[in-house]
Amino acid sequence: MLQHKHILLGVSGGIAAFKAAALASKLTQAGASVKVIMTEHAKQFVTPLTFQALTRERVYDDTFAEKDPEKVAHIDIADWADLFIIAPATANVIGKAAHGIADDMLLTTFLAATCPVYFAPAMNVNMYQHPAVVENMNTLKERNYTFIEPGDGYLACGWVGKGRLAEPDEIVAFLEAEEKAHTPLAGKKLLVTAGPTYEYVDPVRVFTNPSTGKMGFAVAAEAAAMGADVTLIAGPVHLNALPGVKRINVTTAEEMYNEVTKIYSSMDIVVKSAAVADYKPKTILAQKAKKQNGDMDIPMERTKDILAELGKKKTHQLLIGFAAESNNIVEYAKDKLERKNLDMVIANNITSEDAGFRSETNRVIIVQREQNPEDMPLMTKTETAKEILARIENMLIKDA
Length: 400
Ligand code: CTP
Hints:
Pathway: Cofactor biosynthesis; coenzyme A biosynthesis; CoA from (R)-pantothenate: step 2/5; Cofactor biosynthesis; coenzyme A biosynthesis; CoA from (R)-pantothenate: step 3/5
Catalytic activity: (R)-4'-phosphopantothenate + L-cysteine + CTP = N-[(R)-4-phosphopantothenoyl]-L-cysteine + CMP + diphosphate + H(+); N-[(R)-4-phosphopantothenoyl]-L-cysteine + H(+) = (R)-4'-phosphopantetheine + CO2
CATH superfamily of the largest domain: CoaB-like
Keywords: Decarboxylase, Flavoprotein, FMN, Ligase, Lyase, Magnesium, Metal-binding, Multifunctional enzyme
Helix content: 25-40%
CATH topology of the largest domain: Rossmann fold
Distance between the termini: 22 Å
Protein name: Coenzyme A biosynthesis bifunctional protein CoaBC
CATH architecture of the largest domain: 3-Layer(aba) Sandwich
Bound molecules: cytidine-5'-triphosphate
GO molecular function: FMN binding; metal ion binding; phosphopantothenate--cysteine ligase activity; phosphopantothenoylcysteine decarboxylase activity
């Protein structure tokens, strides 16, 4: 959730400033770009070089050290930030923030920031419980700033009680959960279908295709990580359950149709990545067919086109289909978009060796209404899933 996020870390002057170094490191490892602002008092405990080395960014500690004449640093980094975490937040910084005092780089940036700001307090238990500090924290909470509660335990001053800075891992988990709760996909009901279907000829023989389900599973996993409420309807695949994803296993196209239609009306988004059989044997033999001399004909009939049915019944849902094509890819994808009443088609060229069935990677063309087709580079299926979900998020933002 924190990957590619721009995070400002404000470090104020308490002994817990040493833990802020671990926090800067963990945020950087989580894939975020981290810029650190230190107060003069913080520099009594940890040096700017520590944070510079951990984040590979210059550390901001002086409002008047305007190194770039083109920019006003505290405004520039406030605008740059997606989120701002002040850890440790001392009683002094909390008090000044509550009263709009802006006498250093951290506080001027705080006043200029429009992104979510989080305070992780750390101080002596008696200071933490002092009515002035409590009132200042309440003022900030009323203004929609969020506090990450300190822990209980042995404090550096020798007292035991509440006031220990939350552990860096807890702070990272807290920020990730906050980000997840605020994505456009948060709480959206998303249905993914994945894998092949089996159409039985007799008890031991099936018509199927080489789909592994990996693309659909990647979409389900990423969507769940982005806060969506994900249901995965999977054909016969050899893939493990995904944490936080409801999974319904099916075998045939008909079973998939039944399970999808049961829940369709309650869904917000449907991603139909399953490679559903278009035909099934007209009759399923009750006993195993014995081989005969000569050829064998198996009469086949059409299965229901699940996606086309969903397109007909569509009310509020976003409907995303896949198109496995070997020629005229964009033309066929556009045709599918119209014919099946879809919002997006992910087309892949099944003749390309590094894309499609069985491959770990995918090379897709994303076709949306009123937009030029996007020819994506070769990516892993997880990266492809992220690109698809980013476009779904854009659609949700536009519709909001
Ligand atoms: N699909 C479906 N039900 C079917 C067949 C396909 O829901 N019985 C869905 C797939 O999940 C996929 C999309 O339709 O999202 C495209 O499937 P594909 O087989 O590539 O194309 P078709 O629409 O069946 O058209 P054609 O066979 O002409 O390529």
